[in-house]
Amino acid sequence: MPDSASFWTQPVSLAGRHVRLEPLAMEHAAGLRAAVADGELWRRWYTAVPQPDGVEAYIRTALDGQAAGTDLPFAVFDADGALVGSTRYCRIEQANHRLEIGYTWYAERVQRTALNTEAKRLLLAHAFEDLGAIAVEFRTAWFNHRSRAAIARLGARQDGVLRNATRNPGGGYRDTVVFSIIDSEWPVVRCNLDQVLANGGRRP
User: Fold this and answer.
1) pLDDT, tens digit, for every residue of 1-25?
2) Residue 42 — very low, low, confident or very high, per pLDDT cuts 50/70/90?
3) Residue 77: which CATH number?
4) Alpha-carbon distances of 196 from 12, 24, 83, 140, rounded to whole Å
5) Does some domain include residue 125?
6) How many distinct structural domains can be found in the chain?
7) Is 46 within a domain?
8) Strands 135-141 vs 98-106: parallel, antiparallel or unpaired
């Protein structure tokens, strides 16, 4: 396993049947503006989705995190090659072999489809099998019930709730629910995700 300080943030492309993840770049700005407009995702107060005119700043922040060694952002494409959202590894702690999968958002038309399941399958496999992670975290807002249910369906377990963890863009504070999957759980989680994908993304 390479021990370079930048090993976990080396750009990588991940592809499956339903989704393709490519290293995020400024050239993706126009496609992300269109994706975020599908459902006006920024209007959901409990999420951290950029407004259309804030997409360039959003990408710059993600790339700054990559340069700092804490993030590895991706542009998400559907099976037809359309840019439909973004996700990233964040809170990377290479020395502790931990990271988080977060900042995930998709155009409304692809939400709750096999695309997200396969994207998480690809990201988890790369984290555990290629990078050697011992734990992968997921975090979401207390009031984002859909996100909490989706994370639990992946096979992640709830670790706890961070009260007043972050400040919301519109004011007030967000309670954050923390989930994780650890390396010893990954084989069973992988088997479950493969079964779900074999069923077309539908739960048995």
Assistant:
1) 555 668 999 999 999 999 999 999 9
2) confident
3) 3.40.630.30
4) 25, 27, 23, 23
5) yes
6) 1
7) yes
8) parallel
